[in-house]
Write a structure and sequence with these properties.
- The chain is an alpha+beta fold and 197 residues long.
- 56% of the residues lie in helices and 12% in strands.
- The chain has eight helices and six strands, in the order ββββαααααααββα.
- The strands form three sheets. Strands 1-2 form a two-stranded antiparallel sheet.
- Helix 6 packs across helix 7.
- The termini are far apart.
């Protein structure tokens, strides 16, 4: 006789069968504890004090060369990419990233200002369709170096320096590209005088 409900031995509540996980080893084909109790047990085992040793062992194992290689391979697998994509959308991930970014900003204020200036300029240039898609990562790094140099000159001399486009992005009759060979570091005063020329 097939029944459509059973009692969970953990919480003692009678529930319908779809609230129990399937288990081939059980007489009726379902686990004897409900899904909620099963999940609570897993959480207790994973986050409880009894698991501290296992977690510290896992953390130590992950730092070995073999562990790093295994994590790298998993991250590049389709399943790993899907898991990471889901994790990146969580508030927990955003908090971790924001905390790391703030710490980096405090440790490297000059680099942060240069990176921010580079990002703002790239954003403006991309709105003007002046940053070509074919730029290599090396060329993009060269462009960031100009912004770092401008920040460094400003810090050393006390005179504000900026990155200027030799051929303006919004010039009359011609439009320059946002590329490394079209950039130069000049004082803010000179850049203001130059305008779109």
């Amino acid at each position: 006789m097939e029944t459509s409900s059973k009692t969970c031995f953990k919480c003692g509540m009678r529930k319908v069968l779809f609230e129990f996980y399937r288990h081939a080893g059980m007489a009726d084909g379902y686990l004897n504890k409900c899904k909620e109790c099963a999940k609570a047990d897993v959480r207790e085992r994973y986050y409880g004090p009894a698991n501290a040793t296992i977690k510290s062992y896992d953390a130590a194992r992950a730092k070995t060369e073999k562990g790093k290689e295994r994590r790298k391979n998993y991250a590049q697998s389709p399943n790993g990419k899907e898991v990471m994509a889901r994790y990146r959308r969580t508030p927990a991930c955003r908090k971790v990233v924001a905390k790391a970014v703030r710490a980096w900003q405090r440790r490297h204020p000059e680099a942060w200002r240069a990176a921010r200036a580079a990002a703002q300029s790239i954003r403006r240039a991309s709105q003007l369709s002046a940053t070509p898609d074919w730029l290599t990562p090396e060329q993009r790094r060269e462009m960031k170096a100009f912004y770092s140099e401008a920040a460094e000159r400003t810090r050393k001399t006390g005179v504000p320096h900026e990155v200027d486009h030799i051929v303006p992005l919004q010039g009359k009759g011609v439009r320059g590209l946002h590329v490394p060979w079209n950039l130069q570091v000049i004082t803010a005063k000179d850049n203001l005088k130059k305008g779109n020329k």
